[in-house]
Structure formats: structure tokens, C-alpha cells
Amino acid sequence: MRGFFEGLAEFSVLLAILYAVTVAVYFTLGYGITWLNNRNPERRIQKNRRGEKRKAAEIRLSLASILVTCTSVAIGLFAQYKGWTMQPWEFSWWTAAPLFLLCMVLFDAWFYFAHRLLHTKYFYKYHIEHHRSVAPTVWSNDSIGLVDTALSQGFYAVIVFIVPFSPVILLANRLFDQINGTFGHAGFEYFASRTARHPSPMLCTTYHDQHHAEFKYNFANYFSFWDRMMGTISPVYDRRVEVFEKDAPPLSLKLDRQVPEKSKA
Prior knowledge:
Elements: H1 2-38, H2 55-81, H3 96-118, H4 124-127, H5 146-153, H6 155-159, H7 167-184, H8 205-214, H9 225-230, H10 237-247
Helix pairs in contact: 1-2, 1-7, 2-5, 3-5, 3-7
């Protein structure tokens, strides 16, 4: 019994650290990208919608869903620490890049099929809260239901029993996913380029923004190849990226431009 409570205490400390760091990253990215968005209003993707109206509700839900995400990560790391999984591969700078890429590919596959599942008749009720943000913002990334979060982020609690990634690789993917997801929900396009459209598998913010606006396309997280292969990519995605690529104004860091505000939610 003593060992159980000691293990529970260790797990709780790990979970608390992961949660505190993730919440700090959530707010740092949120306010940082908002600062950038305010200086580049012409880069707004959905010109006639203002998702910022849902900020308070999104933050409240995010603080709960982040706990679920961090619990998944903590389970994976704790299981490795206790020796319940395969011995993690030793981390080295020579293998860091290919293993990180492998982790990204596997996470993207997990996310794609979990996301498709959440859009089915019986599971959409767990995902609908996330889609109340038709025009997503930097606060929308973690604004998802708890069952939804467990399905999409359960990767970390499972993958350690299948592929012996080191904790560094898992934590690096989690950090990258937080950054990528926040920019992906930002509602402003900064990454439109040839690398974000066919034949490249890389994405830009327009990709996930279209998912929120149109609901039935663009389910992946990091890469477009699952959507392209499964026929779920928006038929106008590549064209919209090309338009942004050609027409986007220069990036500004000065708060000296304003555009008329629209009231559509």
C-alpha cells in the first residue's frame, strides 16, 4: 500500500508539472499570436466572422481539456519510468531528427483516424463543442470536450507500449503539437507558400481553418497525405493557399493598420 501511495504522489507531481508548463505555453502563445494578428488584420482568413467573441468560453474549456492531455502524457512517461514498457531508445543528437519525424507521422495517423471517428454519428456529440468555434482563434486549439481530448491525445498513453520513443521525443512532439495547433487555429494566415500545397505534404493555417468552416474536410494535423489519400481534403484548399501566397501583404510588426470590424459570429 505504501508503494501505491508513493507512486501516486510521483505521478501527481509529474502531472502537475506538465499541466503548469502546458497552461503557461497556452497563454504565452495565445497572447503572443494575438499581438501578431492585431498587426496584420488583412491576413484574417474568414473575413466576416469574429471568433474572438468565444474567448472566455474557450479558455474555460481549454483549462479542463489540457488536464486530460497532460494526463495522457503523464501516463506514458510514468509507465516508462516504472519499467512497464519496452526500454526507451537512448536519446542522441544523431537519431533525434528521424525519431521526431517518425513520432510526428505516427501521431498524425492517430489524430487523423481519431478525428474521423469523432465526426461519425455516434461520436460527434463529444466533438461538437470544438466546432462551436466556426471561426477558430488562438484560444480554440484546446477548447474541446474531455472524451474528444482523450481520443485525440490518447496517443501518448498508448505509443510507449508499441514504439520505445525516449521521453525527450515524446515531450518534443507534445510541445510542437501545442505550437502547431495554436497557429493552426489562429484564424490568420502566415505560412501560405509552395511548401503548404500540392505536391508538398506540409500544411498552413488555412488547412484547419477550412475544417472549422466547412466541417467535412481536412482532418489531419501535421501533414496532408492522409486527407489526400482518403479523399477528405478540401477541393479548394490548394487554390486558396496559392491565393494567399500571392496576395498576402507583407508581415507587419507595427500596430498602424485597421480594417472594419464585422459583427457576424
